Amino acid sequence: MDNIRIHGFQDCTSQIASNEYFGQSYKDSDSTRSSDQCVSAHNIFEAGCDHKFTFDADGSCSSSYRLIKYLCLNYGFSVSFEAVEEVFKNCFFQLHAAKFGYQFTENFLSVMNAHRDSFVSVVDSILTDLYDSFSFLRQLGDSNITLIELMDKVCFSFSESSYNLRGRCCDILQSKFIPLIINSIFDASVIDGGLERKMTYCEMEKFFIHYITTLERIVMSRIMDYWNNFCDENTSMFSPFSGVSYRDPFYYAHHVYGVSKPVVTCPAAFSNKFGAFISFMAVAKIDCMINNFIKERLGVIKSTIRSKCTSVHDKIVDGYNADLVGEIKKIRECFPSYISGKFSKMVNFGSIRDKLHNFLKKLLIWDSHDVGIEAMEESRLSLLETITNQAHELLKTYANDIVYAVTRDFHSRIIKSRKIVSRVRRSVRTVKDKWGVCLHPRCSHGILSIRRKFSAALKEIVKSKFCSMINDGYKVSGISSISKFTWNEVSKDMFPIIQEEIRPVVFKEREELSVLLSKARIVVDNDKFDGSYSGTREATSEEIVNVLRIAVYNMNVQTKSLIRAVWSNVTKVSREVDSSAGSVMSSKQEEFVNVESYSESSLSGKDVDLSAQYGSSAVSSKLVYASLVIKGDRIFNRWGLNVHPDDVDVILFIRTKFSKKIKDLVRIFFSSIPNEKSKLKRNNVFDDYKWSDISGELYPIVLEHIDPIIKEEYSELEEFLSKARVVVVGRGDTSSCVIRSVTNDEKDNLMKRAVAIIHKELRSSVRSVWAAMNKISKFNFGGDFKDGEVEKSIYCGIRLRYEDSMDIVNIKRRFLFDIKGCIVNIFSELTKTNKFPWRYVSKDVIPTIKKEFYPIMEKEREELDLVLLKSRAVVGDSEYDKLPEAAKYREITYGERSEIVEFIMACVYKKAIDVAGRVWRGMIKFHDVKCVGPIMDNMEFTSAAKGRKFSDVSFRLSDISRVDKDAIDNIRLEFIGSLGPIIDEVINKVLLEVGGSLSSIESMVDKVIPVVAEKSSLLFNNSGFCDSLNSLLSSALVVGKSRRSIFLSDKERDCAYQMFMDSVNNDRDNLIKKRVIKLTKYSKIRY
C-alpha cells in the first residue's frame, strides 16, 4: 500500500484498502470528494478495534503480516486526519493493551506518554517553518496574478515544505527517541490476571510498532492542522471558488506543478540493517544477543592467545638466545586464520544459531514489495545468514584487536625480561660486592622481598605505638608534649621502648630469612648462568652465615631509618590534629591497624616461639642461632659475655646519644676558654697548641664540666643492663641456643666494662673536638665550607645547635656547587673570545653572572629560612648545666632569623665572587689543557650533559649507599695520597727555575697547578684509578626516598663521576697550596 501514489483525496483509499482487509467495504469517490467524507481521526487510530488477532509462534500464519498492516495503518503521508486529540489522552495506549488481554502499569504509561509529549514538542518546533508557505498571500491584490494562481503557489510551497519537514521529524524520531523508547519497553511490566509480569518479546514488538507508527501519523496530522487552520481563517477568500475545495493542497501541487509524494519504503518503526525490514526493537534484541555471544567467545579467545604467548614468554630463561619475539609475531599473524576455522564450529554447535533461529520465527517483517507470505518466510533464512555473517565479522574484528593487544603486551614483556636477564648476568659482580658472594639473584630478591614485607609490619606497629604514646601523654625528660620535638631529641628515651615492641616481628623476619638462605645458591660460572640453575651451586654454611650477617646488619640500619621516618609522619599528623582540637587516633583511626591482628594475619607462617621477649626460650634453627651469635666473638671479647645482639645495639645507641651531648658541651666549653682563664694556669692563646701539649691541664677541667652528663649516662646504662639478655649456646647441640636474662653479677661486670669503654672513648672524643675547634683559625684554601665553620656554630652572636649548623653548611655547599656550575656555563663562552685578566673584566662580568646566579641564591635563601624556622639557639653557658635536656635550647626570634639569613647570604655572595675570579683565571690560563682542575671538568661535564645546568641535576654523591660511598672515598684518598711526591717534585723544579723571584704565593701556585694537573691526569688514567672508579660506579647503588636501593642511571653515573673529579681536583689544588706554603715557609698567607 505504501507504493500507491496519492492524487487528491485518493490517499483515503489506503485507509479503505486497509479496512477492506479487515472485512469492511467502502466505495471509491472522485477527486473532488470533500474532506468531511474521509474517515475520522478516531476511526483511523482505532480502526479494527473489534478484530482480535492472534500470533502464531512459528510465524507461518498470514495473520502476522495482517497484524503489521493493522499496526502500521495510515503511516507515511496519509492526509485523512481531522483531529488526533484521542492520541493525547493518558489512557490512549492502554486501549492497545486491552485488545491483547493485559494492562500497562501506570508508571509505564506515564513514561510512554512523556516520550510522546517530548516528541510532539520537537515536531511542533520544526513545523513552524510551514508558516513561510503562506507568505504568497502578501501578493493578494496584485493585478498581475490571479487568486487561483496565488493559491496554486501556496499549495506548492506547503506541499514541498511538508514533505521535507516530515522526513526531518522521522529522522529525529529514529535517532533520538526510538533508543529511549526501546529501553523503556524492555524494562516494562504488565498486569495480567491481577498479577504483574514482564512483557513477552512479541508483546513488546507489537506495542513498539503501534507506538512508533502512532507518533509517525501524528507528524502528518500536525502538518494538516497547519493547513486546516489556514483554510478556516481564510474562508471568505475561498467563497468565489464554489466548485473547488482547497482542503487538499497536495492534489493541487501535483496537478499544477507535478510535485509527487516521496516514496516511503517502510514505516519509521522498521530498519533495513540486516537486509530485511524488521523493527528497531528486533534490531536491538539481535544486537544484544550478538554482543553477548561475542563477549563470551572473546573471553575464550583471549584466554587461548594469552596461554600461547605465556608458553613463549616462559622460554625467556631457558631459551635466552631464541627468537621469542619472532614467535610472538608468528602467533599474531596466524591467529586470524585460527579464528576463521574455529568460528563455524562455535556458531554451528553453539546455542547462538538456535537462539537466533527461534527468535527470527517470532519477528514481524515488513513486506515492502508485496512479495507474499511464502517469499517473506524464505527471507527469514537469509536473514539468519546475514546476522551470522555480521557476527562473524564483528568477532574477527574484536578478536584481532585483542590478539594485537595481547601480543603487543607480551612483546614488551619479552623485551623487558631480556633486559632483566641481561642485567642479572651483569649484576652478578654487584651482588658479590653486596653480599660477599655471588648470590643467586632470586635469593637476593627474596631477601629484599622479606624486608619489604616486614617493613610494612614494623611500620604499622611503630606507628600504632607512637600514636598511643602521644595520646596517652607520655613524657620524656620532663617534656609534656613529645610530638613537638624531632626524633633526635626524644630517641634516647623512646628507642628502647620501640625496640622492645618490635622484637617479635624482628625475630620472625630473621626466621624467614634463615629459611630462605638455607636454600641459597651461588653463581660460579657467569657465562653459563641464565638466571636459573645453570652455572650455580648450593651455598655452604659459612657463606650462608656471612650473607645472613650482612642482611641482619642492613635490616637493623633500615629499621632505625624507618622508625625515624614514622616518627616524623606521626608527629606531623599530631600537630595537624592538635590544631583542630582532636587526637591522633580519633582522626586517623583508619590508618592504624591493631598490632596483634596484624601480626597474626600478615605474618602467619610456621609457628615460631616469640616468648624470648618475656623470658628464656630455646631456639633450634641453626641459621636463627647464627643470626643471634652473628657477632659472637666480637661481643664476647668486648663485654666478656655473649650479650644478645639487639641489646648490644641499644647499649651502643645509648653511648652514641650521650657522646653527642658530651661533644656539644665540650665544644661550648672550648669556645668559652677566653672567659675561663681564671681556671687555667696559662693566659696565652691556646690555638697553636696540640692536644698532647695542653691535655694535661684541660682534660681534668673538661671532666669536671661534663660530670653531670657522665653520671646520667651511667644511670641509664645501669637501668638497661638490668634487663639485658644473654645468648647461651646449648651443650649437646651447638646449633641451638637459649636466651636468658642477665644475673646481678653479670650486670655488675657489664657495667664495669661499660664504664671503662666510656672513659676510653671519652678521651678520644675530647681530643677530636679540640682538633676540630682548632681548625677555626686555620687557613682554608679550598673555597668550600669546611668543618671548622660547623664547629663554630655561631652566627651574628647566636650559637646554634650543632645539627642546625650542619644543615646550614650543607645548604651552602650544595648551592655553592650550583653557583659554580652556573658560572662555568657562562665563562665557557666568554673566555673563548675574551682572555683579559680578571682584574680588568670583573667590573663588567660580575653584573652578568650576578643576574644568572641570583635565582639560585633566592632558592638558597628560602631553604635557609625553612631550616632556621626549626633551628634552636643554645642558652648561656652558666645556665646550661642546670637545665633539663629539652630546656637547654630556645627558639630563634624573627629578627634573629632575618639577621642570620642576611649574614649568610652576604658570605655566600662574597664566596661566589671569589669562585668566579678563580674560574675566570683558570679558564684563560689553561684553556688548552685537557684536565687542569675542577674548571675544565665542569666544562666537559656541561658539554656531555648537552647544555644542562648544574642546578638541574638533583643527584648528589650523598645519595649513594654508604658502602659505595666509602669505597669511592678510599679511591679518592688513595689517589690524593699518591700526588704528594709529584707536587713536591714540581714545586722544587719551579723554585729552581725562578730562583726565588716569585713575588707571591699566588704566582707560585699559578705555575705549579697546570703542571701537576697534567701529571695527575696521566696518573689517574694510567694507574687504574679511572678504571676502578668506573667499575665501582657501574655497580653502585643509590638509596631512594622509599629507602630502596637501585642502580645508578647513565646520567647519574656521569654526574657522580664529575662530582668525584671535582672533589679530587679541589683536594689536589688545596694540597698544592699547602705544600707551596710549607716549602716556601709562608705559614699564614691567604689566597
From TrEMBL:
<protein>
    <submittedName>
        <fullName>Uncharacterized protein</fullName>
    </submittedName>
</protein>
